[in-house]
Amino acid sequence: MISKVSLFLIVTAFSTLTIAAPLIQVSSGLDQTIDEVVDRVEPGTVVILGESHASAGANNLDQINQVEFIKALTEKYDNVHVGMEFINYTVQDSVDQYLRGELTDDEFKAAVGWGGNPFDEYQKQLLLPLEVMGWTHALNAPRTLTRAIAKKGLEDLTAEELSLMPPQFSLGSDIYKKRFYEIMGVTHDDGNAVYKNMFAAQCTWDDTMAWKALEKFEANPQQVMVVIVGNFHARYGGGLEDRLRARGHNKIMTIVQVDSNQLSDQEKLDLIVPHKDYGVIADYIW
Predict the structure, then answer these.
(1) Pairwise CA distance, residues 87 & 159, whole Å
(2) pLDDT digits (tens, 9 = 90+) for 156-194
(3) E strands of the chain, at which residues?
(4) pTM, to two decimals
């Protein structure tokens, strides 16, 4: 008997057959196929797969690529898992219920507070691990926590808010802070509490995802987990990768998505050459 998940994937398969660009291996500058990259993924690896959130619902190439990459992994491994930035870890029970077929799509979206990203462009990513021995995991900090940090800082969190924080939390590096301030339009750190608190919230996001992802590896160290995040968390090692390494996990592959078919040769070169301040952008550019 065909399962609900199998039927869903068969019906939707034709929408995910086309890949617009190869992956570029940053260390060599060479184009790579998905299969060539997947062949370099070892058991125990966290694959940080970045995306432009703005691509969802418009030109959703990033989400199509995610599906193709996860599918390629499931064809090689039985132990493939997905971690989602879009869902906070306190609602994992609802994720479990959905994966067991106990919630409808609408019930699931209501239960987890699904936001503005179109659900139908991430549903396949949620369900694909069920085709093997995998599962999907909610990784992020609750929005109530990150909003509280952004508003009043770490020092004034309530006991309840502190209980939601990752253990052994620490802020990101000075280089990560510089990059964060740059996208905020801040040219130098003058101690402004607003930006300080916003950076602390950003770091809470990264460290919570690292903490919750690695909890899953404690019981299942040979799994491969694809963590779907915004590109900022994946670029230059400063966000999620740094927090995973700080927590003792070093089997990591990073992929950022930029639709390399739309870049000139010079633009590709600019991404491949290490940034003078931030270093190497990722292992692969897509």
Answers:
(1) 23
(2) 999 999 999 999 999 999 999 999 999 888 877 777 899
(3) 23-25, 31-32, 46-51, 80-88, 136-140, 224-230, 252-256, 284-285
(4) 0.90
263's CB contacts (< 8 A; 6+ apart) are 271
Token pair belonging to 259 = 């639709």
pLDDT at 54: 67
Name the one residue in this structure whose structure tokens are 């916003």.
198
With 0-12 / 13-18 / 19 or more C-beta atoms within 10 angstroms meaning exposed / middle / buried, residue 91 is middle
DSSP code string of 164-216: TSPTT--PPPHHHHHHHHHHTT-SS----HHHHHHHHHHHHHHHHHHHHHHHH
Please state the length of the chain. Answer: 286
Please give the Cα distance from 261 to 257 (Å, whole number). Answer: 11
Residue range 65-123, pLDDT digits in tens: 999 999 999 999 999 999 999 999 999 999 999 999 999 999 999 999 998 789 999 99
Could you tell me if 84 and 55 are in contact, meaning their C-beta atoms sit under 8 angstroms apart?
Answer: no
Are 281 and 235 contacting, i.e. CB atoms less than 8 angstroms apart? yes
Partners of 136 in beta bridges: 82
Alpha-carbon distance of 77 to 256, in angstroms, equals 22
> What whole-number distance in Å separates Cα of residue 146 and Cα of residue 197?
9
The 10s digit of each residue's pLDDT in 225-280 is 999 999 999 999 999 999 999 999 999 999 999 988 888 889 889 999 999 999 99
Residue 257 pLDDT: 95
Return the number of other C-beta atoms located less than 10 Å from residue 221's C-beta: 13
Rounded CA-CA distance 147/4 in Å is 37
Number of helices and strands in the chain (H, E): 13, 8
